[in-house]
Write a structure and sequence with these properties.
Layout lengths: L1 E6 L3 H15 L4 E5 L7 E8 L2 H12 L6 E12 L4 E9 L1 H14 L13 E10 L2 H10 L6 E4 L1 E10 L2 E11 L1
Antiparallel strand pairs: 1-3, 1-8, 2-6, 4-5, 4-7, 5-6, 8-9
Length: 179
């Protein structure tokens, strides 16, 4: 089964992000495959394919992680890409330090399940850019776009199963881990 570990934003933040995506649709000179409201999350670690035989041990390992709850705030839009292409549109969350520490702890505790080298970036993916019509205009819209600095408390993280379908990924929360 294909698994990842993530933090879920609050319902208020998901509602805001859904409206933000709808607002951006008419402004961006690009075709974007938007993340559905129910699938919005902050990935701490992508585990990839994990056999069912390892699932209980993984849950046990994750349940032993101790970390204090903390607060995050939405910051500004950004993107991943190269000088020729833009792949992903995302929203930065701050402060990065606590989220990065939690991601590092999750990573170190789960190395026996997935040791792939992953660079953690504190972000919430909004969409994947399929076709970019004008890079300069795209960058200009992103740089000038003002986002609301909504805050939300991180009190849990989740083990999530991802099933890839022709209609996009389907996520299923397997277990919540309270901080």
């Amino acid at each position: 089964m294909r698994l990842f570990i993530a933090v879920e934003p609050s319902k208020e933040v998901k509602d805001y992000l859904y409206n933000l995506e709808n607002n951006l649709k008419s402004k961006l000179p690009a075709s974007v495959r938007w993340v559905s409201k129910k699938n919005l999350h902050l990935t701490l670690k992508f585990l990839g394919e994990i056999s069912e035989s390892k699932l209980e041990k993984l849950k046990e390992t994750l349940s032993e992680i101790q970390f204090k709850p903390f607060e995050l705030s939405l910051e500004k839009l950004g993107y991943f890409g190269t000088s020729k292409e833009i792949y992903t549109l995302w929203l930065k969350v701050i402060p990065e330090l606590e989220l990065t520490r939690l991601a590092q702890l999750v990573d170190s505790e789960t190395l026996t399940f997935s040791s792939s080298d992953q660079k953690f970036t504190s972000h919430l993916t909004l969409g994947r850019v399929n076709k970019l019509k004008n890079m300069q205009e795209f960058k200009s819209v992103i740089e000038k776009f003002e986002t609301e600095k909504l805050k939300f408390k991180v009190e849990s993280f989740y083990l999530i199963q991802s099933n890839l379908t022709k209609d996009g990924p389907q996520y299923k929360i397997l277990q919540e881990f309270r901080l």
